[in-house]
Amino acid sequence: MSRAKQAFGVYVHWPFCLSKCPYCDFNSHVRHAAIDETRFASAFAREIETTALRAPGREVTSIFLGGGTPSLMQPATVGAVLDAIGKHWTVASDVEVTLEANPTSVEATRFAGYRAAGVNRVSLGVQALDDASLKALGRMHSAREALDAVAIARRSFDRYSFDLIYARPDQTPAMWADELRLAIDEAAEHLSLYQLTIEEGTPFFGLHQAGKLKTPDEAVARALYDVTQETCDKLGLPAYEISNHARGGAECRHNLVYWRGEEYAGIGPGAHGRLDIDGIRHATATEKRPEAWLMRVETNGHGNVTDDLLNSEERADEFLLMGLRLAEGIDPERYSKLSGRPLDPKRIALLREEGAIIVDATGRLRVTSSGFPVLDAVVADLAA
Predict the structure, then answer these.
(1) How is 312-356 classified by DSSP, letter by letter?
(2) Which of 4, 10, 172, 212 maximizes the CB count within 10 A of its CB?
(3) Cα(135)–Cα(99) distance, rounded to whole angstroms?
(4) What pLDDT digit, counting tens, does each position of 295-352 carry?
(5) Is the distance from CB of 134 to CB of 181 less than 8 angstroms?
(6) Where along the sequence do coiled-coil regions lie (predicted)?
(7) pTM score
(8) Which string of DSSP letters, residue by residue, matches 94-161?
């Protein structure tokens, strides 16, 4: 396969938010002074240029502006970033360009500006469709504002998606099924549905440890997961990845780059990348602190603090870990080529017997619906 025909993604991280959500452990920062967007746009362009010199000749098939809250950027800043990508790499004519947005930072005029700048898909951080849950999650919008934002997205873009968090405190399977049906009515083609996880270092972690925040027990969490799968399947948005649901053909192409083990450049504070340079896979990560990243880029042309060379075993393990999240599963032959050894047939036979995986007619290895809730154990077993 020629280089131009392979998927190549560019991830751009905008690290700023209006406020920090109590469950969030992403690289996001609140600044009360105005952000110097011109300076950041120049730094993004510089890091794109340096990265393109290391990984030339790629055709960009997807761009993802994530964060933080990228919809706090002026459309002109987004345009400058997209122009820089187009200047240093070839961009596919059908490129997917996604921008993450919060319902609190959505205005019709701004969305029209993003559309004019080249964005063709938005992903909205809705998180819940009832006000009590939104308040508990520390969100700054109401359910009504969230649905209004979805309507604005629908008017501005052919492709849009939104996120919801489930397994929230006091949530029952019946409540979640109702919320999910409303979400699917509004979502059109794509939904990202995440179980609430309590991450160390977040305010929710301290509350959880102190017994002040109770999440559903294992049995209820499993029932909520089952309701998610059943409702989405029935209403035409089956899971194509463990937390992502879409109508056929509406999958997020950028996220498929990650899960299929393709190459992507990571641009901006705290961004990760995977680049093939001279036949070796590099795992890159940039400085997380926005102002420190700026200074690094202005001095060195990039903000990299990590540039690890992955050996064949690490590449194969990563391919397994990411690829088995997908409903389409993995090609075991590709695993063998990456690792230099095949997957253990005895382990495959045992997991098939347990009903955790299947090997389909084309030879692809896929996790079953009963295997997905214990995916980590399945991956660990196969990788051992």
Answers:
(1) HHHHHHHHHHHHTTBTT-B-HHHHHHHHSS---HHHHHHHHHTTS
(2) 10
(3) 24
(4) 999 999 999 999 999 999 999 999 999 999 999 999 999 999 999 999 999 999 999 9
(5) no
(6) none
(7) 0.92
(8) EEEEEEEE-GGG--HHHHHHHHHHT--EEEEEEE-SSHHHHHHTT-SS-HHHHHHHHHHHHHH-SEEE
